[in-house]
Amino acid sequence: MTPPLNTTASQWRRTSGWLAVAGLLAFLLADLEITRSSPGHELQRMASGFLSPDFLATDALWRALANTLSFAWQGTALGALLGFLMAMLWHRRAVRSVAACLRAIHELFWGLLLLQITGLSTITGVLAIAIPYAGIFAKVFGEFLEEADPAPGRALPQHTSSLSLFFYARLPLVWRAFRAYGGYRLECALRASAILGFIGLPTIGFHLETAFREGTYDQGAALLYLFFALIFTLRWWLRPALVPLYLIAAIAWAPPLFHGQLDTLVRFVTEDLVPAPLRHGGGTSELLSWLISLWHQQLWPGLWQTVVLGMAALLVTALLSLVLFPLISPLFGNRASRHAGHGLLVVLRTTPEFFLAFFFLILLGPSMLPGIMALALHTGAIVAHLTGRFSETLVLRADAPSGVNRYAWEVLPRVSPNLLAFLLYRWEVIMRETAVLGILGIHTLGFYIDSSVAEFRFDRTALLILATVILNLGVDALSRGLRKRLRLKPGLGV
Amino acid sequence: MFSFDKASLGHPGQAVFESLSLSIGAGEIVALLGPSGAGKSTLLEALRQQQEHQVAWCPQAGSLVPMLSVFHNIYMGALARHSTLYNLRTLLLPSAAEKHAVGELAQALGLEDKLFTSVDRLSGGQAQRVALGRALYTRRPVLLADEPVSSLDEHQGLTLLRHTLAQHTTAVVALHDRSLALACCQRIIGLRHGEIALDAPSDSLSLGDLDALYQ
C-alpha cells in the first residue's frame, strides 16, 4: 500500500495546475490570428529605426519629456498626500473600500473620464495619476502602519492625543518604508504619465504613438530611448533632498490650473453619466431593456475577452518567469550570462506593457496575440526579477547537482511559494492592464469604453468602467483567498 | 584515500586549520570529535573536495528540500547516476520500481508511513533520518557525515549509525556523542582549535581520554 500523499509542494502544484488549465482553455478560445501580411518586413524597418534614432526630428520631443516628468511628479505627490491621509484612517472599512475602488480603475480610464471635465490640461494628467495612486498609497501605507510595532505607542502615557501618538510613535517606524515606496511609485508614475499620451495628453506617449503609426520609427525610437534614460538614471537623480525642488519645477512648468467651468462638471455628473432612458424620462422597464442590450452588445463580450486574454497572459507570464529567473540567479550561469539576463529583464520591466502591446499590434495586427505577448513579457520579467533576487538567499548543499537537475530539484521547489505569490499578486495587475489594452483596438473592456467615449455615451462608459472595477475586485479577492489558503507570504515591491 | 600535508583549510585570511597533516586510508571508519568550532565541518568539506565522486554526503541541517516528500529527498541521492530525463520524470511521476527501492530504504529508517509526506511536516529526528537516507541512496563507497544522528535517541542513533556504516567501505563521521564514537568507529580523531589534538584507534581509548578534548 502506498503511504498517503501529504506534501507542501503538491498543494502548490494543484493550485498552479488549475490556473494552468484555465490558461490553456483561454488559449483555445483566444483569437491569435496574425493579420499583418509581412510582419518580418515591418520588424526590419522598426529595427533599423531603433539602430538610428533621430533625436532632432521634433522639438516637441523635449517638451513632451518635460510634460511627462511634470505630470508624474505632481500626480505622485498628490496621490501620496491623499493616500497618506486615508492610511491614517485605514482601520475604517469605508476608507478601505473607497481606496480599493479608486485603484481598481486604471489611470487611462480616469484620464478618459477627466478629459470630459477638465479637457486636455495639466490637471487631467495629474488627477488621472493622483486618484488611483491615492488608493494604492493608502493601501500600502495603511498596511505598513498595521504591521509596525505597536509597542512604542503603548509605552506613551495615557491621554496622549492620537495625533501626537501618530507622529511620535507610529510614523517614525514606517517613514523609511514610505520613502522607498514613494520612489518606486514615481517610477510607475513616469510610465503612467507616458502612456496618458495615448489618449491625447501631451506626454511622450502621444508622440510615440504618432511616430509609430506613421512608420517614422527613428523618431519613435529616440523617444523611447529618452524614456529609458530617464528611468535608468532615476537612482542618481532622485535624491530626497532634491524632491521639493523637483516638485516646484514640475508645478512651474505645467501649473495645474482649472480652466474649465464648474457647470461642465455638474452637467457631466448629473446628466451625462445618467443612463440614457432615465435622462429621457423613461421608467424601469426602459432602463432594464437598455441594460440588457448593453450587456449583450458590450458588457458581456468585453468581460469575456478581458478574462480570456488575462488568463492566457497569466499562463505565459508564469512560463516566462520560470524560464527567465535563472538568467539572473547566482545559482546558475556565470557573470556574463547574469549581466545579460539583468539587461534583458530591466528593458522588459521598464517598457510599459501598453507600449509593448502597441509595438506588437503594429507588427502583427489586431488580435489577442500582441496583448498576451506584451503582458507576459513585462510581467514575466518582473516576476523573474523578484524570483531571481529571492534565489540569492538560498544556500544549497555542497554536493548539490548542477544544470537542469539543480533547477528542477533544488531551486524550483524552494522558489515556488514566492513565485506563486508574486504571480497571484500580479494577477490583478494583469487584469487591469488587459482591460486597458482595449484602447489600442483589442476587444477587451477598454475597447468598448473607448468607443463609448468617442460616441459621447458616458452613461455606457460609467457602467463599463464599473464592470472593470468589479472584475478587478473579484480577481483581487480570489488571489488573496488562494494566497491565504496556501499560506504564501507577501513579497515587497510587487 | 585522503591526505593533507601542512594544508591550510578554511577561508583565506581566516584559516580554521593553519597547517594540517593527516591521512585516512581506504577501509577506515573514523570519528571526528571536538568542541563546536573546532573545525569538524571544515575538515569534512575539505575531505569531500578530495574525492568528490566517491562521496556520499550527509551535511548538517538545511540539506534537504523542505517542501518535497521523503521519497524525493532520498531519491536526490541518485540524481547523479540517472539521466536528467529520468530524474524529471521521477520528480513528477516516480516509477513503481523507484518507489519500491526508496520505500525499502525508508522502511529500514522507520519512515515507511511518511514516504510521501514533505520534510517540512516531519520532526527534527525524522528529517535527520531522511538526510541519512539520501546519503545511503547515493550508493557510493565513502561516507562523510556531519552529526548524522544528533537528533535521534541513543538507541536509535546507535542502530542507524551501525546500519549506515555497514554499507560503506570508508567513513568519516563528525559526532558529539563520545560513547557512540567508541562503539561504532575504529579510529578517533580529536580536533581542538584547528589542530589535531588526538588521533588513535578507538580500542586504545576510554571515555575519560575523550573528555580531555572538551576541557
UniProtKB/TrEMBL annotation, chain A:
InterPro entries per UniProt: MetI-like_sf (IPR035906)
TM spans (from-to): 15-34, 71-90, 111-136, 190-208, 220-238, 303-328, 429-449, 461-479
Main location: membrane
Domain of life: Bacteria
Sorted UniProt keywords: Cell membrane, Membrane, Transmembrane, Transmembrane helix, Transport
Keyword presence, Hydrolase: no
GO terms under cellular component: plasma membrane
UniProt subcellular location: Cell membrane
Topology relative to the membrane: Multi-pass membrane protein
Keyword Transport: yes
PANTHER family from the UniProt entry: ABC TRANSPORT SYSTEM PERMEASE PROTEIN P69, PHOSPHONATES TRANSPORT SYSTEM PERMEASE PROTEIN
The protein's name in its UniProt record: ABC transporter permease
Organism: Alcanivorax profundi
TrEMBL record, chain B:
A family per Pfam: ABC_tran
Signal peptide: none
Record-annotated ABC transporter domain positions: 2-215
Keywords: ATP-binding, Nucleotide-binding
Statement: the UniProt record of this protein carries the keyword NAD: no
Cross-referenced InterPro entries: AAA+_ATPase, ABC_transporter-like_ATP-bd, ABC_transporter-like_CS, ABC_transpr_LolD-like, P-loop_NTPase
GO cellular component: plasma membrane
SMART domains, alphabetized: AAA
Keyword Transcription regulation attributed: no
GO molecular function, one term: ATP binding
Protein name according to UniProt: ATP-binding cassette domain-containing protein
Lineage: Bacteria, Pseudomonadati, Pseudomonadota, Gammaproteobacteria, Oceanospirillales
